[in-house]
Amino acid sequence: MAHKGASNVAKPNDTLVELNQHAKRTGIVAFFKESFRELKRVRWPKRREVIVYTAACLLVCAILGVLIWAFDIGVSAAMSAIGVD
């Protein structure tokens, strides 16, 4: 006799791992069908969001690049000052 709440129906909060514990894959075709079904559920970012996130990423990379460059120059100057080349 099954519990009243027990069911193999996916709930909105279920993760893919939890769903796969109940489902059995039968082959490569089933894998791709499941993959495309999951891709339909993805919330893809809007064009504006992609531009903003890309700009933020490039800005952070530039800032970190400058900081690493400055640190390298500082260490090189310190090494030269103590006579290590």
TrEMBL record:
GO biological process terms held by the UniProt record: intracellular protein transmembrane transport; protein secretion; protein targeting; protein transport by the Sec complex
Keyword Transport: yes
Cellular location(s): Cell membrane; Membrane
Keywords: Cell membrane, Membrane, Protein transport, Translocation, Transmembrane, Transmembrane helix, Transport
Transmembrane annotation, as ranges: 50-71
Keyword Cytoplasm: no
Entry's Gene Ontology molecular function annotations: protein transmembrane transporter activity
Entry membrane topology: Single-pass membrane protein
Top-rank lineage group of the source organism: Bacteria
Pfam assignment, any one: SecE
Gene Ontology cellular component list: plasma membrane
Principal subcellular localization: membrane
Similarity comment text for this entry: Belongs to the SecE/SEC61-gamma family.
Described purpose of this protein according to its UniProt entry: Essential subunit of the Sec protein translocation channel SecYEG. Clamps together the 2 halves of SecY. May contact the channel plug during translocation.
NCBIfam families: secE_bact
Subunit structure: Component of the Sec protein translocase complex. Heterotrimer consisting of SecY, SecE and SecG subunits. The heterotrimers can form oligomers, although 1 heterotrimer is thought to be able to translocate proteins. Interacts with the ribosome. Interacts with SecDF, and other proteins may be involved. Interacts with SecA.
Name used for this protein in its record: Protein translocase subunit SecE
Gene source species: Alicyclobacillus acidocaldarius subsp. acidocaldarius (strain ATCC 27009 / DSM 446 / BCRC 14685 / JCM 5260 / KCTC 1825 / NBRC 15652 / NCIMB 11725 / NRRL B-14509 / 104-IA) (Bacillus acidocaldarius)
